[in-house]
Amino acid sequence: MTYTLTILGCGVMGSAVLSAIYSAPKCTSEIKSLYPSKIITCNNDKEAADQVTDMINKLGESPNCITIDSTYGNNSAAIKQSKVIILALKPYLVESVMNDIKPFIGEQHIISLAAGWTIDGLSYYSPKISRVMTNTPAKYGYGCAVVAHSEHIVENEKNLVCELISHVGKYVELPEKNMDAATALVGSGPAFVLLMLEGLMESGIKMGIPLKESKECALKVLEGTAKMVELSGTHPSELKHQVCTPGGTTIAGLCVMEDKGVKSGIIRGVEEAANVAAQLGKKK
Ligand SMILES: NC(=O)c1ccc[n+]([C@@H]2O[C@H](COP(=O)([O-])OP(=O)(O)OC[C@H]3O[C@@H](n4cnc5c(N)ncnc54)[C@H](OP(=O)(O)O)[C@@H]3O)[C@@H](O)[C@H]2O)c1
Hints:
The protein is α/β, with parallel strands linked by helices. The chain has twelve helices and eight strands. It has two domains: 3-182, NAD(P)-binding Rossmann-like Domain (Rossmann fold); 189-280, ProC C-terminal domain-like fold (Orthogonal Bundle). The chain is elongated. Bound molecules: NADP nicotinamide-adenine-dinucleotide phosphate. Residues 8-14, 42-45, 48, 75, 88-91, 93, 97, 113-115, 134-136, 187 line the site of NADP nicotinamide-adenine-dinucleotide phosphate.
């Protein structure tokens, strides 16, 4: 048995999740039922729908033979046919768009990507809610997704979310109380890392390394360090001390960064983003 999935709002995040599911490697027959046979994408205007079609054409055929119907201005028709809905609208549009289609929602499973929308807030539309916080690297299969489920989600539905969403990159299940922190750490995280990348790049430029080479070096340092932490399983502090020769260059640089409050700036910045995410949730 297989089913139709709707992606309601197929912009930056909707397209990232769409391409991850569409291009997922061929699955075994035991888990075939977790994959949709058809995905309907819903947008507001033709241009956005055409962009989805272009993206799919570039991806070629789906290994799991998923077909795509890219639509605009016709949410209700899509919802009526669908067993599962991925909600990827901007948070401020969720209420009005969902109210319009509420008459066509029975007990469809809603997988929401919308920041600030709690399981309780979305339960007005369906009892079956899974909340996902992911990020833009998902488009390249290097995303991270933190997932929380409503109490009405049964084992098979959890497996479905895990199977589909894990293709964005890393899949982590946490209680909903951690979602504001996940919004800041995972959702906003790429912007914070890009700030650090920019800082490293511009340090090279300031000292005379050309832009292209500064960017290549800074990028490899970030990528290589992340891989080293992952592959070694060693705590970052220990790896940091391995770079610090007594009286050497690294400890001198770290001292200045500590003086400037780089680490506490990162911690407080992520915390502030989480506070804003919590405020978004309270407005619902
Ligand atoms: N971007 C991020 O880094 C990020 C990270 C984590 C979570 N999120 C969450 O992901 C969600 C989507 O964000 P986004 O950045 O992907 O936004 P986006 O690029 O603006 O995508 C939203 C899509 O919704 C469509 N839409 C607007 N009105 C609609 C309607 N009435 N019916 C159907 N579709 C409609 C838009 O289509 P048109 O262009 O046709 O209007 C657009 O393609 C948000 O809730 C956000 O909190 C985003």
